[in-house]
Write a structure and sequence with these properties.
single chain; 211 residues; mainly beta; Coagulation Factor XIII, Chain A, domain 1; six-stranded mixed sheet
Length: 211
C-alpha cells in the first residue's frame, strides 16, 4: 500500500469558522486544515448526527428526553469527516497521519476551542480496539462500543437555563486517563448538542509508546 505523507496542498479560500474542535492535542482535522487539504476553518465544522455509535435518526437522548432528537450519525468509513464532503480527506486510509506520542494510563488534557458555542449535553471519548486494523476505514467495529470517558451536562431541560449556564467553557479542558494500548490508535471525541440534532466529531491520532 502506498502511503501519502501529509504535506501541503493548495485549496480554495477559507470558509467562515463554525462551532468547535480539539485544539490540543491537535486533531486530524486541524492538521489537515493547516496543510490546506481541507478548506480553512472546516476543522471547526465536522458536524453530523449525535448519539454515535447509533446508526439511525429520530432517537431520544436516554438521559435528557426533552433534548432535540438526532439525525443519523455518520456512516461507517466517514466518521472522521462527519460525512462532510469537503472533509472527505480525513477518511483516507493511505495517509501517514501526524501522531501524538502518549503512554498507556497517562493523564492527558484534551482542549476544545469554540468559534460558536451551543447548549450541550455531553462530550464522549472513544478509542479504537486493541486489535483494530489501521489499514481499513474507521468504522464502528474498529472502536470500542462504549466511550472510555464521558463529561455530562446534567442541566435539563436545556431551554430552562441560560446560554451561559448551558454553554461549554471557552476553552473546555478534559483530563483523560488513556486506556492501555500499544502503537498507533485513534481517539474520537464527540461533542453532543442538546438544542440541535447534531454533534461535532474530532479524530486525534495517537502513538502509544513505552513509559
Amino acid at each position: 500500500m502506498t502511503t501519502e505523507k501529509a504535506g501541503t496542498a493548495q485549496r480554495s479560500a477559507p470558509i467562515a469558522p463554525t462551532h468547535g474542535s480539539i485544539a490540543t492535542p491537535k486533531s486530524r482535522a486541524t492538521f489537515a486544515e493547516e496543510r490546506r487539504f481541507i478548506d480553512g476553518n472546516l476543522h471547526n465544522g465536522i458536524e453530523s448526527g449525535k448519539f454515535f455509535p447509533e446508526t439511525t435518526g429520530g432517537l431520544t437522548d436516554p438521559y435528557a428526553k426533552d433534548d432535540v432528537t438526532n439525525i443519523a450519525p455518520p456512516a461507517d468509513g466517514k466518521i472522521a469527516s462527519g460525512e462532510r464532503p469537503g472533509a472527505a480527506y480525513l477518511d483516507k486510509t493511505d495517509v501517514e497521519w501526524d501522531k501524538h506520542d502518549v503512554a498507556s494510563g497517562a493523564s492527558l488534557d484534551f482542549v476544545w476551542s469554540f468559534s460558536a458555542r451551543h447548549k450541550y449535553r455531553r462530550f464522549n471519548y472513544f478509542i479504537t480496539k486493541a486489535d483494530w486494523n489501521a489499514g481499513e476505514p474507521l468504522t464502528r467495529a474498529q472502536f470500542e462500543p462504549q466511550p472510555f470517558a464521558t463529561f455530562l451536562n446534567e442541566l435539563q431541560p436545556y431551554w430552562g437555563f441560560t446560554d451561559e449556564q448551558m454553554w461549554p467553557a471557552q476553552p473546555t479542558t478534559h483530563t483523560l486517563k488513556l486506556p492501555e494500548r500499544q502503537g498507533y490508535h485513534v481517539l474520537l471525541g464527540v461533542w453532543e448538542i442538546a438544542e440541535t440534532d447534531k454533534a461535532f466529531y474530532q479524530v486525534v491520532d495517537l502513538n502509544f509508546v513505552a513509559k
